[in-house]
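Record type: monomer structure entry
Structure origin: computed from sequence
Chain ID: A
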Amino acid sequence: MKQKLILSLFPGLGGLCRGFTRAGFTVAKGPDKLLGERIEDFRGIKGRFDGVIGGSPCQPYSGLNRKAARGALDTGLQNFIRVVSECKPEFWLHENVVGVPKFEIEGYQAQRFNLDLSSFRDASRLRVFTFGHKGGRLLNPIKSESRAGLEPCALTADSRPWDVLRDIQGFEPDLTLTGFTDAGKKRLIANAVPVPMAEYVADLIKRDIYGKTPRMTDLLGDPVKRCACGCGRAVYGRSKTYDGACRMRVCRAKAKA
């Protein structure tokens, strides 16, 4: 695979960066709030990057936030969309919590899917990924569901030692975060994208977009079925459509035929 250059927005502790680097991509980090840098001041360069990835701040959509945005795009997600539109990469990937609203970016086929950390670790954490490809290509992720009786995921206000949270999130054992308080370390590690999950998605892109053999072959699974309405979302079991709106689109299309 020709070396692919990826721009990582909202890099934070670098969970997504690590996953894509381990999968063989070259990753350049964008502005980081930890360093006092603002995404609002960043401008993308057209044609420079093959992909743009990022997990904008999840607090606006968290179920723990009583003032969470419901269906509206916060400034972080708006700026993610803006930078992608400026860079015009081949693909983009956004990660967030379940409450993040559905969105699309002009010029790309968007695909939304869930992954749970329990597919990669003995801990559960459900995350939403939205993938977009300029040529309309789609990923074939596994059906990822939480398993019962697992260890809780890493939380920002967690009573467990921070190095336990570090291991749950899949970061390297020698990561020490010198200079941060214990509470600060816990916030950083809990807000990061779990590294095994990031590596899995990077491997999906490597396989399904570029046709290359991934590293995590035992977890990639078989290709999924697609919704009959053409939206690109995966369906499982005997289902032919993703939801009621998709079924209505199929019915209207049959009526016109």
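Annotation 1: The first helix runs from residue 15 to 22.
Annotation 2: The first strand starts at residue 5 and ends at 9.
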